Amino acid sequence: MKSTYRQALEIRILSSIITKTSRQALEQRMTEKGIALSMLQMGILHLVSHHAFTSSELSRKMMLDPSTLVPAMDALIRKGYITRKRDSDDRRRYLLFLTDAAHELLRDVHMVNDDDPLLFALEILGEDNSEQLRRLLRSVVERLPEGEAMLKEMEARLNLTKMKCNLE
Questions:
Q1: Are 61 and 122 in contact (CB under 8 A)?
Q2: pLDDT tens digits, 3-17
Q3: In the 8-state DSSP scheme, what is residue 81?
Q4: pTM tops 0.90, yes or no
Q5: What b/e readout covers 24-40, taking b as 16+ CB neighbours within 10 angstroms?
Q6: Segments making up each domain of the chain, as ranges
Q7: Distance (Å, rounded) from C-alpha 80 to C-alpha 99?
């Protein structure tokens, strides 16, 4: 039991290191392009690029309190990246949509670039080891609460990204 506890702790730390390194690389690319957005704002743009949400739906989706999310959304609206439009099916609801400027921004700033440190590390690992790591991580996520639903959603987002970017 104790070794499983240590493994869980180490995996949590390793995941945090990977996330931090990837986030820093993306932030650097954004800074180089003169894009003044937070990672939270980029996350909002990526989610809204795949589906129109209300503020409360987006808050639940991102597992963030509305008091954290609303200021970031308001800033995106002020910057001209998101608009709110009344839901045609329920006039009490307002849905968030990306503007053309946001679509252009997302086309210009990719989550993974050729100089991405994670991509570099995976290339050094080799295709077989990288695929094995991917499969193991998917297996872990699948066993988390709502893991299967998260994987299905990830697949849908990856398929949309693949179509938009012609990835293979």
A1: no
A2: 899 999 999 999 999
A3: S
A4: no
A5: ebbeebbeeeeeebeeb
A6: 36-108, 126-168
A7: 7
